[in-house]
Amino acid sequence: MVESPELVVEERDGFAVLTLNRPERRNALTASLLGLLAIELDRLAEEGGARCAVIRGTGEHAFSVGMDLNAMAASTPEENQRLIGPGGPLRLAIASIEEFPYPVIAMVRGYAAGAGCELATACDLRIGCGQVLMGMPPAKLGIVYPPEGIERFVATYGLATARKLFYTARYFETEELSAMGMLDFVCGEELEGFTMELARDIASLAPLSMKGHKSALRAIVREGAAGEDAPERAAIDEMASMAMRSADASEGLKAFLDKRPPRFKGE
Questions:
Q1: Which of 34, 115, 192, 203 could form a disulfide with 93 if both were Cys (CB 3.0 to 4.6 A apart)?
Q2: Distance CA 192, CA 65 (A)
Q3: Which sequence spans correspond to the domains of the chain?
């Protein structure tokens, strides 16, 4: 387990849990916290032992309320633009989530606001229970959110939902979020147990299959890579061909015929 004042990383049986650890500020995001998140996700991806990752916030009140506004108030407009704009800590952390080779789950409790909402949106799945409040309040702060972030909301939830988020600047609650597609699972009060069980289940699936599916879905969203001439189509086809020829594919078929759980090795 890797620990720091702002981020706690725990590696479990086949998956990792990354906890935003600023409960006194409702897990508000800083340059250092975002940098740590990117570093740890990249490390986990390189080491390859975690076949799923969970991102959560410490405490009952928030996944993350977004960027630390106290820190931003003490900075210049140029510094704040670099913080959330292209090449800045927020973009790098989100890129690390998207480029992580296996599914990333956002475990959402309480508020996920502003950049915290985008951080959850960048994850592959979002799980919530009880009172979840997600929203995009830039219009209440007099700023325009980075276009890269707005594009992510449109691509993930659709134009109509993105308009609701940015034009109203209001917080939407659990049932509304589920109907809008912003929460993939709404569970009972055992949010942590449900999330960890799902992460464990995902980590038990065939690694080559999961990596191929995440790469294909990411490429289709970015490039429309389902077309035969799309730039990333050849790489996706090669991943599918490798998986079909893999020992895991043989093991999956044998396990199905033997009526037993498969034992995947990522080979």
A1: 34
A2: 19
A3: 2-202, 206-258
Strands 171-172 and 185-187: unpaired
What is the distance, to the nearest Å, from the Cα of residue 226 to the centroid of all Cα atoms in its chain? 23
What are the residues whose beta carbons fall under 8 Å from the beta carbon of 237, sequence distance 6 or more?
Answer: none
Element (H, E) at 249: helix 247-258
pLDDT tens-digit profile of 114-153? 999 999 999 999 999 889 999 999 999 999 999 999 999 9
CATH number attached to the domain at 2-202: 3.90.226.10
User: In 65-103, at which residue ranges do the beta strands (DSSP E only) sit?
Assistant: none
40, 18 Cβ separation under 8 angstroms: yes
Please give the structure tokens belonging to residue 25.
Answer: 């500020």
| 75 in Cβ contact with 97 (< 8 Å) | no
Distance between CA atoms of residues 199 and 194, nearest Å: 9
**What φ, ψ does residue 261 adopt, rounded to 5°?**
-65, 140
- pLDDT digits over 245-265, tens only? 777 766 666 666 666 677 777
Instruction: Take residue 211 and report the two structure tokens written for it.
Output: 């990596």
